[in-house]
Amino acid sequence: MNVSYFTQQFITGIQQTSWYEFVAVIAGVVSVWFSRKENILVYPIGLINTTIYIFISFKYHLLGEASVNFYYTIMSIYGWFLWSKKDKHNQKSVLQITYSTKREWVWQLLFFGSFYIVIFFVLTLAKKSFAEGAIPWADAFASATAYTGMWLMAKKKVESWWWWIATNIASIPLYFVKSLVFTSFQYLLLLILAIAGLYSWMQKAKYAKS
Length: 210
Description:
By secondary structure, the chain is mainly alpha-helical.
């Protein structure tokens, strides 16, 4: 496999991209842009992305990712609620960007590990039964890191971006091999935005401490 192969695959993939995948990708990128800015629009726009990807994930036997997008939808509503809370005195957001404590880090790792094991086990069974195209280890990793990242983002934790970075790195090849090339390209953009988001939130958390 060389550069020309990947280039041809990308061009072919773009030509075969459905209109709803284009909409989902654009909504996803815009949503992450707003999350980097700590703008509450991350959630309503993100809901457009997640609902479409539930359908796409089932269609391409990415069952772990389907569960992730369903979870995203629920957590988007939850995060929207948390982020919208205002202080009665100064009308600023009650929830501030902070770093995780050591105890919270332990919970994050347990949260990730539990979901990875469960999703991997379920996808392995699904692959044997009806979803031959499933890739259990990769799908489970991308899904479990995404579950963790979304949970932490709702709580405005800086570490959420580390989990998003891991999700994006895993998802780029995962969607590419499924011929969802435009979605794969989306995750490349999201990886860049996640790195920028990490830096931005680190600065905001530092400013909040001072």
